[in-house]
Structure formats: C-alpha cells, structure tokens
TrEMBL record:
It catalyses: phosphonoacetaldehyde + H2O = acetaldehyde + phosphate + H(+). It comes from Pseudomonas fluorescens. The gene is phnX_1. GO terms for molecular function: magnesium ion binding; phosphoglycolate phosphatase activity; phosphonoacetaldehyde hydrolase activity. Homodimer. The lineage of its organism: Bacteria, Pseudomonadati, Pseudomonadota, Gammaproteobacteria, Pseudomonadales. Involved in phosphonate degradation. Keywords: Hydrolase, Magnesium, Metal-binding, Schiff base. Its EC number is 3.11.1.1. It comes from the Bacteria. GO terms for cellular component: cytosol. This is Phosphonoacetaldehyde hydrolase.
Length: 275
C-alpha cells in the first residue's frame, strides 16, 4: 500500500462565532466584560477581544495575566488573580454566556447558501469552538432553528487541549472519516483558530471582516467606506501574519473560490504543510 496525496478537499472545519454565526463575534466578547464587572474589575471590549479563539477559562487566565487588568484586580482585592480567582470569574461567565447567547445567534448573511453549495460539491462540514459543551449545545440548538446543522461539533472541553492546540480539528477528522488532514480546510476568525488548523496539518482560511478582528456588526461593516475598509484589511492582515494562514478573505461567503483554488493546488500535488 502506497501513500498518495489527496487530490480534492473532503471537509471544511468551521469555527462558530464570527465565522458561521454572530457577525462581529459579540456573544463571547461582551460577556467577558460583564463577568469581570461583577467582580468590580473593568475590562474593555478591545481587551476582551485580544485572546479570542481560546477556551474560555484560558481566555480569562490570559486576560488576568495582562499587567493592566492584573493591577485593576489588585486594587479591588489586594492581590493579583490566582487560578482560583480565574475559576470564580469563569463560573460567573458561564451562566451569563448561556443566558445571552441567543441575542447573537443569527447566521452570517449568506452563510447557509454558501455551505449548502459546498456540501453539494461533496464537502463534509465539521466544526469546533472556544465554547465549552454546555454553551456549544445552546449554540447548536439555535443554529438548527436557523437551518444550519454541522456534520460534527467539538467543544473546547471535549479534548485534552483547546486552541491553539490541534486536538479539536483532529477530532473532527476522526469523526468525519477523513483519510488525510491535507484534505481539510480550517476556517476561523481568530489567530488561535488558524494556529489550530496549521498545527493539524490543514489548509487554513482567516476571516477578516465577519469576526473578532474587525468587531463590527453586519450593518456597520456594510456602511464602511472603501478607504476605511482597506485600512482595516491591512491592519487585520498584520494581526494574522504570525499564524501564517494560507488565505485571508472577508467572510465565509468567499470560501467557494478558496476551495476551488485549493482543489487545483491539491491536483498539482501541493500540500498545506509545504505552503
């Protein structure tokens, strides 16, 4: 039995907030602000967006490790945050997140039609998220009401390590019966999510405009003038540079063209690990 490179993509592994649902990725971000506020510690939306894509406990730990936030915490409690303090914030975060998730559950405009087309071309649709399972179950339920059902879902607490480790992406490969990681494309709006795909040996697509990096609603995005949008694209390209995504596009609706290009590259023998 000899190894041969895949010649076509078999699966797209998609993030959720900022990728398929919740244009601007507001559901997780705002809740971090509210959870810290319940401990009388101010965290801005911009600060909360920084570690986006990680598991939520790790996200809170990363925020607490930032000197400015740690100092605000110290002024309230007389100490910098320990892991027990992080857990306390996380435990307050979780019910807030579950309560508010429906507010930002709408599908990205055009996403359902785009994914229907990709499935018609033979792609399986896997998914993973920085949400734990108790939140992910609610996200999946709401998405189903809007017509979107992924073929497989992996929450951040269903694997030994969340992003930027590759475990969630690889769990999708196993569950979907994909025979080569090079036949998968990982689509995400965060640096940890792109690193996840890279480390899993997949093609990677970073979303510039629908997610955390731009942080605007659909209406605000549509209202941007050409010059501002160009400057924002340039800024976000720089943010993703260290993660080395294979492609950077505005939204998931640009994915069919990317898939077609990847299929051409695979047919020529190119693999994501060498690109």
């Amino acid at each position: 039995m000899n190894y041969t490179n895949p010649t076509r993509l078999q699966a797209a592994i998609l993030d959720w907030a900022g990728t398929v649902v919740d244009f601007g990725s507001f559901a997780p971000t705002q809740i971090f602000v509210e959870a810290f506020a319940e401990f009388d510690v101010e965290v801005s939306i911009e600060e909360a967006r920084g570690p986006m894509g990680m598991g939520k406990w790790d996200h809170i730990r990363t925020l607490c490790d930032q000197p400015a936030i740690a100092e605000r915490y110290r002024k309230v409690f007389g100490r910098t945050p320990s892991d027990d303090d992080v857990t306390a914030i996380y435990q307050r975060f979780m019910p807030l997140q579950i309560d508010k998730i429906a507010v930002h559950s709408a599908l990205i405009p055009g996403a359902l039609q785009t994914l229907t087309g990709l499935r018609a071309d033979g792609l399986k649709i896997g998914s993973c998220s920085g949400y734990p399972k108790v939140v992910m179950d609610k996200v999946v339920e709401l998405a189903k009401c809007n017509g979107y059902v992924a073929d497989h879902v992996v929450a951040t607490d269903e694997t030994p390590n969340g992003r930027p480790w590759p475990a969630q992406a690889l769990a999708n490969v196993i569950a979907l019966g994909i025979d080569d990681v090079g036949a998968c494309v990982k689509v995400d709006d965060t640096v940890p999510g792109i690193l996840e795909g890279r480390r899993a040996g997949m093609w990677t697509v970073a979303l510039i405009c629908s997610g955390n990096a731009l942080g605007l609603t659909w209406e605000e995005y549509q209202a941007l003038d050409a010059g501002t949008l160009a400057r924002e694209r340039q800024r976000i390209h720089a943010l993703f540079e260290s993660a080395r995504p294979h492609y950077l596009v505005d939204t998931i609706n640009d994915l069919p063209e990317v898939v077609a290009d990847i299929n051409q590259r695979l047919a020529k023998g190119e693999m994501p690990q060498s690109a």
